[in-house]
Amino acid sequence: MAIGGWGDTDGLSHGASTNAARNKFAKNVVDAAVKLGYDCVDIDWEYPAGNGADYKQIPNANKTQEINTFPLLLSAIKTQLKHHKMELSVTAPGLKRDMIAFTKQHTPKINAAVDHFTVMTYDLMNRRDNVTSHHTDVKGSLDAIDTYIALGVEPAKINLGFALYAKWFTTAAGYNCTQGLGCPTELLEAADGTDTGKSGAVTFEAANFQAAPTNLTTSTDSSCGAGTFYKCPTGNCCSQYGYWLFSGATEAHCGNGCQADYGICNGTSTTTSFKTAIANGKTDEVRGGQWYWDPAGPFFWTWDTPALVTRKFNDIVKARGIGGVAVWSLGEDSYDFSLLKAIQAGVKAWPKK
């Protein structure tokens, strides 16, 4: 049972704040896990001590106490889980700039409290960056794993994270990004910390590779896009989020990410560009990442391939003796399951302990 996720920090912050709050939070979590029949609880706090979705509203300077309270919260949860022979895991950031709570002093305490330590070795480039780089390359992933090992996390507890999606970023107008890495981007995050709509992700689900159905009907409830049989009413655009932002005529609907097969779009649709990128991707053999720059966007794309998954098993999992792997998320590779098959093959080839 996972608790937290991007943008969900308030409850964890309050739950960790005092001894009484930690004990109450731990009891509520364990009671729910027992009632629902789970065998493990995962704390996905993004992120303790700052740099979360609310970092502009609540500065990191106001969260320094969480460096101390985070391991105490984990310990309180683990204490109660032991009574039910259940495990505790933590999901940890892959970027050093977000590892604020994972200090040399406190990481061993975190390690002592958990059974599993899943590292988000993806989204290593995100909307807070302004220069293109891989979001889940071998080199960046290994750097993250090595950082945690150096901080005191037992390799056998670590899970290497895999992403079942590609990410795209709008490069700066007029810049010829033929080299892929190191290109300036448009502003990806606004001054208040919100998304500018100039970056996003596309999963490897079957719907994102297929042409739109030929029997589309006009939506009556504003739902549209890949995975549906609905197009927008005339003059409207289908946003990249389909079900969530629906049809409309605003920049959020018609700009980057707009689904051209289901309505009108301003400029190049990322759904169209995605297919171009996958068909023409280039491998960075040095850092171990796949990329493509589409000048029509202009969009920089970054993702993993089965060959790079295999390389991660050899260069990271086996080389560092780490304990497991994880994916985000399981249903996002339904086109041909090639990444999941490569992960499965890597697990099967694992030396038995």
Automatic annotation (TrEMBL):
Key word Acyltransferase present: no
Keyword terms, alphabetized: Chitin-binding
Pfam family, one: Glyco_hydro_18
Keyword Secreted (UniProt): no
GO MF, one example: endochitinase activity
Superkingdom of origin organism: Eukaryota
First-level EC class: hydrolase
Protein's GO biological process: carbohydrate metabolic process; chitin catabolic process
GO cellular-component term (any): extracellular region
EC number(s) reported in the record: 3.2.1.14
InterPro entries in the cross-refs: Chitinase_II/V-like_cat, Endochitinase-like_sf, GH, Glyco_hydro18_cat, Glycosyl_Hydrlase_18
Domain GH18: 1-350
Protein name stated in the entry: chitinase
Source species of the chain: Colletotrichum liriopes
